[in-house]
Queue: 3 jobs
Job 1
Amino acid sequence: MGRFFQTLVALAFAAVAHDTSASENVTPNGAPVEIRLYTMDCGTAEFADGDLFSDTGEYAGKPLALPTPCFLIKHGREWMLWDTGLGDEIASHPGGVEKSGAHFVVNKTLVSQLSELKLKPQDIRYVGLSHLHFDHTGNIGLFTNATFIIPKNELTAALGKPTPFGIDTSELAPLDQAVMISTDGDYDVFGDGTVVTLTTPGHTPGHHSLAIKLNKTGMVLITGDLYHTHENYDKSLVPRMNDRTYTLGSMDRFRRLVANMKARVVIHHSPEDFKGMPKVPEFLD
């Protein structure tokens, strides 16, 4: 099964690389498939000292404020959420909360943003997680009808002892009852090459980025935490908590994909990229 999906993804990517114009996605019978990408505000993380985000000292002693978005994808009549952000319960603390040496704020709940599209958490078919750090898993328990896409090696590492950096095991508890797709490689979510998770380990063992093929915009690659800022992207800076060797390999792969697909890059935590994305109820298509 793993080899089948790898072949399928390779064929989908090859087709995109040979036709880099924004072309319409179609179903097997030729009918158009509507693909939309929504950006949702799922909190903000504020660090008094951003030194954690580069092991070569670029952020030492400098404050850093990073948005924590979630991304909602409409594929025909189906919905997929990419990351679940900081927990909605933080919104009940107007001043935010302190956790793991940083300050976290949620001004608008994920549930309220779904409701702007007349959606409930139960309407989401797939929830994909770039990795299992708590600022990406805060609302897992809301999505009781969803199938979760989580690499086996990512979940195994997150549940290891001692508990790894950035993991809140209480947020992961609902996964015990969840339906899961566990694949350590790339995964073609809808089987048509329009939404593909990309293995980019280094930040965590099973970290993934995401590729979305939109009808008008073309290819969009969302980095996840492979990069946190534009400086990280431009200089290939490696956060202190990362595996440096795997991270640099993933960065090389990501840049080659961007070049071959002529893709728009969305750096997950970049303030500039977050500001430049249309927010719910607006979207990219």
Job 2
Amino acid sequence: MAHSKVSIYGALGANVIIAIMKFVAAFFTGSSAMISEGIHSTVDSGNQLLLLLGISRSKKPADHSHPFGHGKEIYFWSLIVAILIFGLGGGMSIYEGIEHIKHPEALTNLAWSYWVLGGAILFEGAALYIAVNRLYKEPGLKGSFFKKLHISKDPTLFVVIYEDTAAILGLLIALAGVFIGSHYNMPTADGIASILIGILLAVVAVILVRESRNLLIGESAQPLMVEKVYEIINSDSDVHTLSRPLTMHLAPDEVLLALDVQFVPSLNGQQLSKTILRLENNIRQQ
């Protein structure tokens, strides 16, 4: 999973720089949307650290209390990330927007907002490019981009992609709020933009909660992988009958496979052992 850290480090570096830029711009402009975006980037930075923690803990070796290892730790921490996006990111952005609508203030020093938002879009775009590039290089993922994203079992990829996509959309909303608020003398537009950013983060959080939940409760491997395993076993001349393979993801690159196989009655013990070893090797290779 070392290769997946590249997308996390890229997103972490971008978010730390962007968070500082946004809070500086919010200080000089008084923009509610900029404060929301600063909160957003700060939460995202913390999320990347939690994903790195999840990767580290998921690599702990199997023991008596966890005979199948600790691979699902990464799914637990991706769930925590989703909750933080919903509570801290979405909730605080909506609260900040409501407060700004109740007590609207004219924006000042708008050049700060435009420069920071433009720079943030570039940084977030670069981080998103790194993550998407990693997704396309993942072995076994076929189909369109959204299909690959849906079937990916690696939170270090799909969480970062969802986060960065939400970040870019949030920046565009903030940019629209600042422009409308200043150009049409509508201070409340900035607060509305902050609320929309909060709703956007809440939607992304719900998507991530659903993905993490499925993996935590034992989601199976991709249907194509299950079918391929079935074909490999069922086509062997020493196999008499085969039930549908049972699979469960233990980690992004680790799958538990259970097979109910009846071999031809004529096999003796030594032949049976060789057949099982051959089938295991064929599955691993293909």
Job 3
Amino acid sequence: MTKASSIKIRAMAAGDLSRVHELDTMCFSLPWPQRAFRYELEENAASKQWVAEVVSGGEGPSTVVGLIITWLLVDEAHIATLSVDPQYRRMKIASQLICKALRAEVARGARSATLEVRANNQAGQRLYYRFGFQVAGRRPGYYRDNGEDALILTLHELDEDHLDIIGC
């Protein structure tokens, strides 16, 4: 990313579906099928979808480099998926996506948040811990590709004050 570029977080659109699926395939050994992203965007009323795009200075082209999908289940936000293009990692893009998504879910009534993360994904766990997520449980053999366990992480007190305190 050049100095003239910036990151913009915006709602996912139908025109993003191909790139979003490409990112998911690039980032995960068990990617979602493209039709799942279309379902989230067009049919799942509980779902909110956001993308991060690199916007070049001026009127240059933009590129989607990250995505997050959350579901609101009663008063709990669930982070269903989060991915960032490996070439754009360690640039706080995932943090920006999480902030945008959690703020949107608080506005829809969320009071807590959950997610599953691979037990061996130390980088992902560190990211979520910075937001105040804590280990709430374990799902043995959750991931079909290698039988790895998932840790269930929960953020128990999700509200605007918490998001302000952590710098969202």
